[in-house]
């Protein structure tokens, strides 16, 4: 069985996901680098792209395989897929337009257009890659997914999976909801969380910590104007790993540096206190291809969403969201979330 995936926002993350899935499909000898090879019978090669939505006039109307390489996208090109037969359609704009003049000409559609497209393309799971700050636009697409009975994976920081209102609506409609804000395969957040968790488990007192990120993607241009949500989801994720400890945390995307291209560099510092009040200091730097770093987790998430649909489970998926997202309805350490997802896949827990 195939999983028919729709995409909202054909930017860098969409580019990495489409390139990667299509590359693995046409090269069966390459093992996909994902945490879960098989999720209820679904492998990454069972994902097909069914629909796509944009507002940038340079992308709307093109085949998805061509739209992913239009400016301002600058995700590294690893694989050029053939045309996929998926035409990028316009969607509701609202607060979606990224800041910093990234989209010079906007094309607009309605929620009703999105519902019709989701229905006519038989989309099963809709992945939301809107720019940070687009809360109203994210809600418009969540509404469209609900009306069409399509699972919703909220890959960006808008509050959808963590909102009581949306949790209730997806629950009532019997449609799975995952989010919020993808936690990259080996991104700054999961890396930082793991360090803090280890220190907390070893009885170390955390004094303060920072994580400052710089990057050269359009996402970083937008974040320079609208980073509030991102700072919130990242800080909450890290602080939750040392429950009961009070410490200062400064976590922020601090600069767009054009020559970094699709790279993001995260500098992390932790200052803490061990037995006897002595100080330890940990400094780490992570240098990644940002959009590519989100694709594995989304590949897992759409398969977990489809498995829930097959089982008739609607509403927020607790284990899958804790594994794949920075700001899930319930926070878990990376190893607890991994175990919970395995239990979900094996049918030992229902969400
Ligand atoms: N590793 C990562 O890059 C990563 C990790 C976690 C979360 N995220 C989040 O995922 C989101 C997408 O990241 P990206 O790097 O692909 O960003 P991007 O800026 O490259 O892509 C966003 C796309 O959405 C389009 N868009 C804007 N408003 C729209 C609307 N109303 N309807 C349809 N399309 C619209 C833009 O034109 C653009 O093509 C961001 O919010 C980012 O913070 C990214």
UniProtKB/TrEMBL annotation:
Keyword Isomerase annotated: yes
The protein's Enzyme Commission number: 5.5.1.4
UniProt keyword terms in alphabetical order: Isomerase
Keyword Ribonucleoprotein in record: no
Domain of life: Archaea
GO molecular function per UniProt: inositol-3-phosphate synthase activity
Protein's GO biological process: inositol biosynthetic process; phospholipid biosynthetic process
The family this protein is said to belong to: Belongs to the myo-inositol 1-phosphate synthase family.
Name listed for the protein in its UniProt record: Myo-inositol-1-phosphate synthase
